[in-house]
What does this fold into?
Amino acid sequence: MYDMLFQFLQNTGFYMADFSHILMIIIGCIFIYLGIAKHYEPLLLVPIGFGILVGNIPVFTGMGLSIYEDDSVLHYLYFGVTAGIYPPLIFLGIGALTDFSTLLARPVLMLLGAAAQMGIFITFLGALALGFSPNEAASIGIIGGADGPTAIFLSAKLAPNLIGPIAVAAYSYMALIPVIQPPIMKLLTTRRERLIKMGELREISKQEKIFFPIIAFLLCTFIAPAANILLGMLFFGNLLKEAVVTQRLAETARKPIIDTVTILLGLTVGASTQADVFLTRESIGIFLLGAVSFCIATACGLMFAKIMNLFLRQKINPLLGAAGVSAVPDSARVVQMIGHKEDPSNFLLMHAMAPNVSGVIGSALGAGILWSFIK
Amino acid sequence: MYGFEAVAAHNGWSIAILGILIVFTGLTLLSVSIAYFTKILNFYNEKNKYLKKDRKWWQVFKYMLIKKQHKTNDIDNSLTLEPKSFDKLKEPADQYYAILQYLGEPFQLPELLDIAKKRGLEKPHSTINDLLLAKLIIPHRLGYFCWNHKKYKQKKKIQIKD
Amino acid sequence: MHIDYQKVIKTINFFNSFKHDEIERVISILKIIHVEEGKTLFQRGHQAVNCYIVLSGNYMIYYKKGQAFTLHKPGEIIGYTSLMAPFYYTSTCVSLTEGELILLSRANFYRLVQVNSMLSNKIIEEINKVAEKRQFFTQHMND
It folds into this structure.
């Protein structure tokens, strides 16, 4: 009997835990705290945080408990991440949520979304320079797109071993957008530029809103076929939203589907983030590069907006360039906040949504391009 | 391998430059397509209008016959609760006046509320509201309040006469 | 009890410039709540998560040093810093009487920003008119 008791005690988490488990559990708790107490992207950080707790409980191998064991429940749920199923479903929901009318009203603002995606490729170069392989560098670079599903999708295809730290880095920095962007925005723009008022936007007809997803999908995927699945789901969701006859499907896409997938994605990505992958020099490199990529993306968007103003008759407020970072609608909200501080009668929120949603298209396109070059 | 050597070895420069160019080209083409598509759509819709031009005069005539009424609801925003009569407020007014002898004027409204709660006065929130509506408590300056002594004395005199 | 939101919304000055279909969309993100006398709606310094529009009742808003003002009319906005900087409540709000308020949560508002950015812009513009008027009065209240 004592042998059995001793054996049981040896099988408990208390006996098997080491420093790395405890540290990861603390990190998981920090994520949960940031999500609940500080309201930093709670819909993502809470599942990821709890997933980290789940994935870092010390367990026996061979009992089908770890996420990396073939017959475990977590492994089956994780399949949606590794096979790249969850991100396109999230994009379906995002498409069903997103209103592209501000983009249609002033298509030139799309270029700000394109400019912000330079952050992806510059970070890609930085990652290569730091010694990461091309696959890993591409997966790290996509963090600069500030698009969690895209980052997870590309990592799953190119560097599945880095999904955990990349996802955590991407979502953490997305939550920190209100902290990262304002200093860069103030540094790279003058007060006079920040006071530029945007003109009234024209009304967009229902016809335009229905044709846009079809045209955009065909054009973008003909240019980069590898972006087919992400952009396909995004524009399909948008078509469901705009075609009034499919409202029921759009409602399903933007509520139950996106919420279910977010739960499973967050939990399994968190669970896959284990000490041997997370507490490494590479992770520190990923986090550093992630921060750099956000800063570069913001700066590129801002600078491009200033360059555009040299050629445009109707000037645009360069703050909109920062909204090219595709964290929808957080970066648009930051633009509104900074613009509002300078001039309370300047409403940039609506205008900032244009580069914001264009950034989503741009980051998916960037991911497709990197995937086709690297694979 | 690190640094520029690593970048060059993995064709990093070409991938990055081509990638940026393709993203830009793609979104530029999309932007131009949308801009022109809007014009095509407008032309198509205008074309239908021209084809139905013989019906246009009838539509205009019909429109003039049926006048659209765009009545905006003139909402009465001056709606306030009717202030209570002084009879009903006499006792609370006296109680709060007594508190103000202690607080001094001008006073902080939340402080008055706190003291009223501590002294166990009944329904302090709605009573203060009644006193505000009856203009026995009036705004002073910069968010402070004071007692309307003139009105209070007037009402008391009327009460005594009655 | 079924609340006719359309009828209720139409009585509010705030929504005067909104078209019928816009009001329909807005209704989907609003909630009507009932408050008792003496309820603290929010406290100064806390994260601003909800914005309120008065339907009925009387409310007191007070600041750090005890300066206060009171709201008695329907259509008044309370807690607008949930939708604009600084995103935390700069004052405490207490209901002086029983009343009803329209609640607009920040999360729902930002969902609307994604789904219909022009309508959300309209809401922010209306709220800003109120904020501008009140800013003159309140800018030094928390110093």
